[in-house]
Amino acid sequence: FRPMKHLWILALLLFSSPIWGQMENGDDGRLPCSRCNPYRFCNCSHSGFTHVPMVTDQALSLDLSFNNITLVTQNDLLEHSKLRVLDLHGNRLAVIHPSAFDALWSLEELDLSDNQLKTLNYEWFKKLEVLQQLNLLNNPYSCLGSPPLFLGLVRLRKLMFGGQDLKELNREDLKGVTHLDELTVQANNLARYDSGTFGGLWPLGHATLSLYGPFSTNTTLAEVLLLDVCYPETKLTLVDLHLNHYVSTQPLRKIIKRIRDLSLRNFSLSDEATVSLLTLIDGVPLRSLKIVGLTLTGEGRWVRANRTELRNMDEFFVSDVTILDILKFAMTSEVQFLLQNQRKLSIINSKMFLLSCYLTKMMVNVQYLDVSDNLLTDLTISYMLCGNEETLEELRVLNISGNPLKSLSTMSRLVTKLTKLTHLDISRTSYSSMPPSCSWPASLRYINISRAKLTTITPCLPKSLEVLDMSYNNLKEFVLELPILRELHLSGNKFLRLPAGGYYPNLQTLKIQSNTLNVFSLSDLQSYRRLENLEAGHNKFVCSCGFVTFLRSLLAGSRGVKITDGDQSYVCDSPLNLQGDAVDRVTLPIIQCHTVLFVSVSCGVALFLGMLVSVLLWRCHAFWYLKMSWAWLKAKRDYQRHRRQREIEGTGALVSFDAFISYSERDASWVENFLVPELEEPSDSTDLASPLTLCLHKRDFLPGHWIMDNIMSSIERSHHTVFVLSQNFIQSDWCRYELDFSHFWLFEARGDAAILILLEPLSKDDIPKRFCKLRKLMSSTTYLEWPQDEERRPEFWRSLRNALRTDD
Ligand SMILES: *[C@@H]1O[C@H](CO)[C@@H](O)[C@H](O)[C@H]1NC(C)=O
Ligand SMILES: *[C@@H]1O[C@H](CO)[C@@H](O)[C@H](O)[C@H]1NC(C)=O
Ligand SMILES: *[C@@H]1O[C@H](CO)[C@@H](O)[C@H](O)[C@H]1NC(C)=O
Ligand SMILES: *[C@@H]1O[C@H](CO)[C@@H](O)[C@H](O)[C@H]1NC(C)=O
Ligand SMILES: *[C@@H]1O[C@H](CO)[C@@H](O)[C@H](O)[C@H]1NC(C)=O
Ligand SMILES: *[C@@H]1O[C@H](CO)[C@@H](O)[C@H](O)[C@H]1NC(C)=O
Ligand SMILES: *[C@@H]1O[C@H](CO)[C@@H](O)[C@H](O)[C@H]1NC(C)=O
Q1: Is residue 646 part of a domain?
Q2: Which residues cross the membrane (predicted)?
Q3: Pocket-forming residues, ligand 7, beta carbon under 6 Å
Q4: From atom 12 of ligand 2, which residue's Cα is the shortest distance away?
Q5: CB of 616 closer than 6 A to ligand 5?
């Protein structure tokens, strides 16, 4: 037992370490993925994640496809209760924890296809009550397992499962699933099927089954399975069938009588199987048969099937037909009986080079004929349409797209007799020129000549057209009157400007993408009277201001025309600095875009600012200050000049007055009636009262001199300056203020002898701030107050005289 014990420990160590490692990675080592768009779709595909990445719990849709994720742990998706879509397609998932999806209450779509899941666990889906779509395709499980996987999925509408390893389907496997819109089962190697497994699926919209193995090895199984899903209302698609003999067609024997709509994909048939199948479908109620990817392995010996009648078949569609042995293949029987009842017939991409007139004459009911992507030429088309003879009289739609046709006039001549033809698709042909005139059936409304090689258009095009597709040619111009045209496709040509709209009064849709348009304008659009939809992206736009503004208004939908190809396709090609920028994002300089507006607005602003400044200056008496400063400067200069002159001449200052009297005009009466008489002609003849000489501007200024100079010289020639202050002085007399202002400046220069007389009580604060000199003077110099009381006036005069006498 001892060695055993050691082995146990060793095993534990060996196995636990990678598990721990993974746990660590799983919890902490999870990388974030933040590639989420505004619709909360997080695209974390193709990113090499080995663990479920950390994604915002607000995500609605999470794409983890094509990574290398190997496991989903219990905690990986814990926060994603809002998630609707989870895609784990194309990983290497081998392990999913039973409760990994438990938190995904809102999950509607789950894709686990193309992984390595060997077993499926019903616990995964147990809580996914709103799941509508589940894809389990291509995993290596051999059975679905029990208990039934889908039991709780009551909302399931789309179910896909199976793969190369699916071996058995048991009766209980689809328990709980009923109403399905789509069922896809890959069961190419199915070996066991319990009858009734799919029997409970009703209604079933569309069943797609790959049953290669059962059809070739156990046809009973295939038949039983098919019987379970086939109802008249169920569309059946069978994929990857290879029918090589009579027996292999037998599973279809019963169901072909039940179904109405059968599609076959990747389908190969031998001659024997073809005959057998044709016999089987004789007279069945099948309405639509579509075969995509048909390989004929035989030689075309179908003679025994000449009775087949498909009276009920409305539509026969076959594309991508390959005949393996084309040299030996020769249909020894005519198959016209197959083609005489359908209304819709398509034989596409099948290297067909001829459809004989004999056959088309049989197709008396056909209204829709599509022979696109074959090898029909002008000549064989001529055979097909029987030259000048009547054929295909009921034909409405003819699609010859993708054939090597060269002559448009031949085509027009041939189809003229198809009097009910409304749609003609001759796109992807080799037409390189258009004849000057053509004849067409009067009923023709739609022509598609896109991807040909036309360089010009002519009146060949019929006036009856409502839809015309001329995209991807080499056109530069389009001038043709088409009065009832509704749709015009001109993308991928070489247009420099929009065609003139006047020719198309009924045009509603214009597509002109990928040309070389530089600009288009409102008037261009307005020339189309009925235009509603425009696609003009991917052109070489020159992003001028006018164009950008116009296009933005167009994109914003304010012009009545809807842009239907997305804002992002409108990109500037020039100027160089804007190349590659979306037109609705570029910012152009305002100067460039609104020159007139810009200039007028800036002028207006400048004017306004100027006015504002002027008003402000005026309010602050700035002009007054300026004028005063100027006057003062001038006076000061003159004064200095005079003084220098006097010094040169040697004459001293000429003092001839005792005082210069500065006063307001309104106080003139006081000066004349009191001051002058009192000082010049004193009434009492005491010592003190000897006469003084006064300088009054009214009386003593020299006429003819500038007033400022007069003041200057008067002050200069006086010992003192007497200011007669009053409210009048301060408030009213502007003219005097000016003068006095300059006195103060000058006064400062002399630095002495100012005498202030207050005619009425004034405090310093009554004086406006701008007379700062006066204010200063008032606070530094004592002043004399004119007493109202007569008794005290002699006292006043005495003080004044004293002041005037106290000489320098
Ligand atoms: C998600 O991204 C990949 C490339 O990372 C891209 O190929 C794929 O088209 C994207 N899927 C969708 C739906 O946009
Ligand atoms: C996944 O891993 C394999 C090898 O481990 C590697 O070759 C492959 O490129 C990886 N795939 C992605 C999408 O990273
Ligand atoms: C064919 O399949 C049926 C149904 O699963 C089965 O009963 C039968 O044994 C199979 N036959 C052969 C030959 O494998
Ligand atoms: C077509 O079916 C055959 C089996 O008949 C299969 O081997 C092949 O891979 C299929 N081809 C395609 C393209 O699915
Ligand atoms: C069908 O072929 C048989 C011979 O195999 C012939 O007798 C019969 O007339 C043919 N019927 C038609 C409608 O061509
Ligand atoms: C004609 O066939 C082409 C290619 O199969 C298809 O794109 C086109 O829509 C068809 N035209 C009409 C009018 O059905
Ligand atoms: C014209 O034909 C082209 C190519 O077959 C096709 O892509 C296009 O959609 C058609 N135009 C119209 C308006 O149907």
Answers
A1: yes
A2: 596-618
A3: 401, 427-428, 448, 450-451, 467, 469, 489
A4: 48
A5: no
Name the residue among 734, 703, 697 with its Cα closest to residue 715: 697
Q: Is residue 65 part of a domain?
A: no
Q: What is the pLDDT of residues 191-217, one digit of tens each?
A: 999 999 999 888 999 999 999 999 999
The preferred substitution site among 37, 49, 63 for testing ligand 1, maximizing ligand atoms within 8 Å of CB, is 63
Pocket test residue of 306, 310, 331, 335 for ligand 5, highest count of atoms within 8 A of CB: 306
Q: What is the predicted pLDDT for the residue at 557? A: 83
Distance CA 333, CA 678 (A): 156
For residues 550 and 525, is the Cβ–Cβ distance under 8 A? no
- 409 belongs to a structural domain: yes
Dihedral over Cα of 242, 245, 251, 257: its sign:
positive
**Nearest residue (CA) to ligand 5, atom 5:** 304
Angle formed by the axes of helices 734-750 and 622-649, nearest 10°: 40
How much distance in Å is there from the Cα of 91 to the middle of ligand 2? Answer: 9
d(CA 392, CA 399): 13
Q: How far is CA 176 from CA 243, 363, 797, in A?
A: 34, 48, 130
Query: Where a domain ends, among 436, 452, 472?
Result: 472
Distance 422 CA to ligand 6 centre (A): 14
Q: Hey, what amino acid is at 298? A: G
pLDDT given for residue 739 in this prediction: 55
Nearest of 302, 382, 386, 375 to residue 338 by alpha carbon: 302
Ligand nearest to the backbone CA of 64: 1
Are residues 672 and 744 both part of a single domain? yes
Residues in the chain: 808
- Quote the ligand 1 centre to 63 CA distance (angstroms): 9
User: Would the pTM of this model clear 0.85, i.e. be above it?
Assistant: no
Q: Range of 589's domain?
A: 475-593
